[in-house]
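Hello again, I could really use a second opinion on something today. I've been staring at a protein lately and its backbone has me curious. Can you walk me through what the tokens say about the fold? Take your time with it, there's no hurry, and the full record follows here:
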Amino acid sequence: MKEFISRDSSRIFLVSVILNCPWERAQSRLYVMTDGTAVPWWHCGLASVGDGFLVLLMFWVGRVVFGQGAWFDHPGLRGYLLLAVTGLVTIIPLEWMMISRMKWWSYTSQMPLIPGTTVGVSPVAQMLLLPPMIFRIVAMWRRRHPS
């Protein structure tokens, strides 16, 4: 269990929530709640906590695949590919389930959709663009403040 709750995982989660929160707030105008109202600010905060857990999942998958916890210090092509694949494999089904099956919220007409799907471009772009930035920030943090 200690392997999953480490200084790195805490840092990754913290940075992830901090970076995902503004993204969630910015894209919130592309969503409406089931009653047709705007997404409240606190909902964006909760969503960014969920995003933090998704990014932690990416970290743990990388730890298993590469056999080391510090794989993101120098991710290389394989590390970035792992982030992209795990980001897509997690966010597309999750977003589809929340929109189409659970109906927790829906998209406004301004949300561009991935062609041939009912999944929005913005949440997918979020899971493709932010994780490399998050891991880069945490890698820099590790160099400045080693364990």
Summary: The mean pLDDT is 93. DSSP finds four helices and two strands in the chain. Strands lie at 31-33, 105-107. The chain has one domain: 7-144.
